[in-house]
């Protein structure tokens, strides 16, 4: 028997899509359209644009809006589009949310304000102001390893009362806290860490926002397909088979943006270099990723 499924306002298998650049570092909208079309054709029913993997800190407001519009043109209504709009400044985040709505996004991803380390009351006020400003539904982004501040479970429970705060991208590494919120709210949780895709789905999450799906969207979708079909053994087999690949992409000392772009470039898919301060992966890293990709795809 599978767990009761929470509502899925943004779909189930979401990819935290890279932002393709040209060889000289300019936004590659043609490449973005091509990559988005491939991801949707291979099992993604949602795309998160301009998130961590999408290099949001180094793309301009104008580039973010252009990216949403281009990807919407490419995928139409075949996938939901979630636009990353989070910044360290509440007023800026509100402006970004309104721009994403105008560009055609279906929802916004809003990260906890970083660097200033606001207390929980201020964290809640930030999210509520953004949710009040736009008609788009909000996915909270809980990633304290990058922001320095948790969205504490009690704060999540409070925020869940807002009609437009509907989902969470969970990178908290706090399974107990996640289950507490799942048990007490209708928030749709999405695993933001690829090693936790099946674990969170099994306790009622709505799906995942996957970085490795940039390269292996069908495999990530297959994990959730197997679980939905009641074949939990097969779901576990697929999750475990992906572990070496996930580890190489997400836990080998380089950001997922860097490893994803290195592999996609080797696969002749749109990627381009990351923007500084990130540096491209070396040849040895790219070779290793390609070998692991081949092994996982062959399995």
State the helicity in percent bands. Answer: 40-55%
Strand order of the largest sheet: 1-2-3-4-5-6-7-8
Q: CATH top level?
A: Alpha Beta
CATH overall fold name = TIM Barrel
General shape? globular
Counting structural domains, the number is 1
Number of E-state strands: 8
What value does the Rg take, in angstroms? 18 Å
Subcellular location: Cytoplasm
Enzyme class: lyase
Catalytic activity: L-aspartate 4-semialdehyde + pyruvate = (2S,4S)-4-hydroxy-2,3,4,5-tetrahydrodipicolinate + H2O + H(+)
GO cellular component, one term: cytosol
Keywords:
single chain, 299 residues, alpha/beta, TIM Barrel, eight-stranded parallel barrel, amino-acid biosynthesis, DapA-like, schiff base, lyase
Give an overview in words.
- This protein has one domain (13-231): TIM Barrel (Alpha-Beta Barrel).
- Helix 6 packs parallel to helix 7 (175-184) and helix 12 crosses helix 13 (283-298).
- It has an eight-stranded parallel β-barrel, surrounded by five helices.
- It contains 13 helices and eight strands.
- The mean pLDDT is 96.
- The chain has 299 residues and is α/β, with parallel strands linked by helices.
- Helix content is 47%, strand content 12%.
């Amino acid at each position: 028997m599978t767990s009761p499924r929470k509502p899925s306002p943004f779909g189930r298998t979401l990819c935290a899509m890279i932002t393709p650049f040209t060889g000289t570092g300019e936004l590659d909208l043609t490449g973005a359209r091509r990559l988005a079309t491939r991801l949707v054709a291979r099992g993604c029913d949602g795309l998160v644009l301009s998130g961590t993997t999408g290099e949001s800190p180094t793309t301009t407001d104008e580039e973010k809006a252009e990216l949403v519009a281009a990807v919407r043109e490419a995928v139409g209504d075949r996938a939901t589009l979630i636009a990353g709009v989070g910044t360290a400044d509440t007023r800026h985040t509100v402006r970004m949310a309104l721009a994403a709505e105008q560009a055609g996004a279906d929802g916004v991803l809003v990260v906890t304000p970083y660097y200033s380390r606001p207390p929980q009351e201020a964290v809640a006020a930030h999210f509520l102001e953004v949710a009040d400003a736009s008609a788009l539904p909000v996915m909270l982004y809980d990633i304290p390893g990058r922001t320095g501040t948790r969205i504490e479970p009690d704060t999540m429970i409070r925020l869940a009362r807002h009609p437009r705060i509907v989902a969470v991208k969970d990178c908290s590494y706090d399974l107990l806290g996640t289950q507490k919120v799942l048990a007490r709210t209708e928030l749709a949780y999405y695993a933001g860490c690829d090693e936790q895709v099946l674990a969170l789905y099994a306790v009622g999450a709505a799906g995942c926002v996957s970085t490795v799906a940039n390269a292996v969207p069908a495999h990530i979708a297959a994990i959730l397909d197997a679980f939905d079909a009641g074949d939990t053994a097969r779901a576990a087999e697929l999750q475990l088979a992906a572990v070496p690949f996930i580890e190489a992409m997400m836990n080998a000392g380089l950001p997922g943006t860097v490893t994803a772009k290195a592999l996609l470039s080797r696969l002749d898919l749109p990627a381009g270099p990351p923007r500084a301060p990130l540096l491209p992966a070396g040849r040895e890293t790219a070779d290793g990723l390609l070998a692991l990709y081949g092994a996982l795809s062959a399995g």
